[in-house]
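Late entry, written up from scratch paper. The run itself happened at the end of the previous shift, but nothing got recorded in the book at the time, so transcribing now.
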Amino acid sequence: MSEDNGNAVTLAGGEEIDVTIGGKRKKVFVRQLPIEDIPKLAQATGENNGFGDESTMVRLYLGEGQLDDLSVLDMDAIGAILDKGEELNLRFLHQFLRRQQRRGKVFQSLGETEKPSSKSQPKSRG
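Output as recorded:
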């Protein structure tokens, strides 16, 4: 399934939810993020000593062009967008972070096995 709501097309789509914007009930489309936005979500999630940067997360979940000014959202709308965005994206983000951790361990172990020795390099016979 593919959704295009004026935003980048994502394979898994997302979901429309009702929120209050400027005092009126409206629908917004909360995206399942495309792969290129997952590192941005990981960074936003880790900001502020692990409390996250929720305004960035809301912008990621809504995508470009849906809402330019987040101040028109009431607190319930922000919470609903974040909750739906997490429902759609956190499982994959968790898998992404596990892969990153695993790769980090591989590269760390490579660095440990390839430490330069304290012996001087052999001289070439030239």
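The two ends are 65 Å apart (CA to CA).
(Scratch paper discarded after transcription.)
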